[in-house]
Probable phosphoglycerate mutase
Amino acid sequence: MKVYLVRHGETAWSLTGQHTGVTDIGLTARGEDQARALAPRLRTLDIAQVLVSPRLRARQTCELAGLQVGSVIEPDLAEWDYGHYEGLRSVDICHENPGWNVWDDGCPGGESADEVSARADRVIACRCRMPGTVVLFSHGQFCAALAARWIGLALVEGQHFPLSTASISLLGIEPRHDNRHIIALWNETQTDSKSCV
């Protein structure tokens, strides 16, 4: 079993560092090119299932990567709901709320860390236990949350797994070591490698 995590391509807000949860913005022209560049790498996989966040930027990335046909929208793959912090940058939030960290504190009017952790656990329990290769099109912080929970870490540890736009990561199982959950590949972009695990 393999679970590929694909972060959506570049958006205007990913460029500026604005928290983008429920705001449904599309890809930039560069983001569209990044998504198309994923296609040759992803088409070599023997894919059993493709699941996509309901947000436009993830759906566009899936489509431009050539995996829209047969894909399924999975609401639990949506990015963190940033509530009152939607559209703000972390540095601006910390001016108002010094010491704030989304991984510890969550977002007023949005999701708590516990709620995001529960969503990640649902995705793992319901969607990542199927045989074969699963590809998930999602978002930076939610993919990091999935990775942390996949290997049994507390959600707060997701802050140590940053992702570039249009990156591919791979969650797997090591059968030679009691089926230990592993991160087999992290944050690989088109410029990192021309091959796919």
